[in-house]
Design brief:
Strand content: under 5%
Structural class: mainly alpha
Shape: elongated
Helix content: over 70%
Oligomer: single chain
Distance between the termini: 48 Å
Radius of gyration: 17 Å
Amino acid sequence: MSATDDFLNSNHSYRVASYDDLNFEDEDSVNHVRHLTQAWINERAAPDILQYEQSAVDGLLSKIEEQTATIDELDSSSDTLMIISILYQTELERVKFVLRSYLRTRISKV
């Protein structure tokens, strides 16, 4: 159990039904984020357009859709759950920024 789960369970009145679905911590997602971040850095540094990272982009797009749906379903009636929701939304926006910037960089080279 994570520290967040312990905290939520200790307050007895807080429980996120789909808390396990609310993260980028699974190995595939972390790998996609790292891979796309490296591709974004490489693309920005290269004078010519590089090979498109299809698997990383597709993997992140599907994960972004899942996370968005899960965050929308999250009950943020308490302060604790609202903070957790904000943290996940912030991480989601960071990943979306890298994805948008990667695609914009590629488009600008065409």
